[in-house]
Amino acid sequence: MKIKFEMKYSLSDEVNGKHYVEIPTNVWKAFNQKGRIKSDCFLNGMMYHTSLIPKGEGKYVFQLTKKMIKEASLTEGQIVSVEMTKSKPMKMNKSEEVVKQNISFREQPTSHSCGQACVAMLLDKSVEEIFELFGKKPLGIGKIVDILNAYGVKNAQKNIRVSKKNPIPSPFSLLTLKQNGHYHFVVYAHGKIYDPARGILNDIPTGMEISLYLEITYT
Fold first, then answer.
1. By residue range, what is the domain housing residue 166?
2. pLDDT score of 94
3. Contact (Cβ atoms closer than 8 angstroms) between residue 30 and residue 1
4. Are residue 156 and residue 203 in the same domain, yes or no?
5. Segments of the chain scoring below 70 in pLDDT
6. Which pLDDT does position 88 carry in this prediction?
């Protein structure tokens, strides 16, 4: 089923630099799904992949990113035609799975953006694009799981604490490292540590230890 509506674009609708659009229909009924929903969004005929964010009782919003505003050439007061469909799950063949798991290193541009940098590595996007989509404030594991789910990246849905029962992280994981009460996200893949603050390492940085891990899969 498609959701169609018109919206009036206005800079005054931005809050803290972000522009969210309320969808004027019951999305639960339209897409027969609750929670975050991946959607193909058409703005004046141009398609974008986005995530519909639940606000309760079937009400949803989506973020109108700077990239969408620029590419769709939106101007103040313009009436915009919006069409949304529920994204279909992508089926990957073996070669696509291999490409997906070839992590490309991303460096964190600020001291508190290790979460965004790790998400960028897992989604094969730039850190700047992740900033634009999800902001520059530090990301917690709950938000990271929501983002991975929205983009179809299968994961364990929650962190597992390293213990005698679970002493070794999964071969493909988002690790939470701990040092003097401070926490830091890194990606663990192919036996390497992709540390957005230090580069690609063979082992955990000196003075740090693995506290938690989130298992990642693409199968």
1. 94-217
2. 39
3. yes
4. yes
5. 88-101, 218-219
6. 65
Please report where in the chains the tokens 């975050």 appear, as a residue. Answer: 36
Q: Pairing between strand 46-56 and 154-155? A: unpaired
State whether 81 and 103 are in the same domain. Answer: no
Look-up of token digits 């939106």:
74
Strands (E), the chain: 2-8, 20-23, 37-43, 46-56, 59-63, 79-86, 154-155, 160-161, 173-179, 182-189, 192-195, 199-201, 209-217
**Which residue is associated with the tokens 């540590």?**
193
DSSP state for residue 113 in the 8-state scheme: -
Q: How many angstroms separate the CA atoms of 94 and 100, rounded?
A: 10
Q: Which residue, chain included where needed, has tokens 């590595």?
A: 121
Instruction: Please tell me the predicted confidence (pLDDT) of residue 40.
Output: 82
Is residue 86 within 8 A of residue 38, CB to CB? The reply is yes
Q: Which of 161, 160, 104, 109 is nearest to 132 (CA)?
A: 109
Task: Give me the pLDDT at residue 91, please.
Answer: 43
Let me know: does 183 contact 176? Beta carbons within 8 Å.
yes
**Amino acid identity for residue 161 in this structure:** R
- Predicted local confidence at residue 93, as pLDDT: 41
CA dihedral 63, 15, 6, 31 (to 10 degrees): 40
Question: Looking at the whole model, is its pTM more than 0.85?
Answer: no
Which residue among 86, 119, 147 closes a domain? 86
Say how many residues make up the chain. Answer: 219
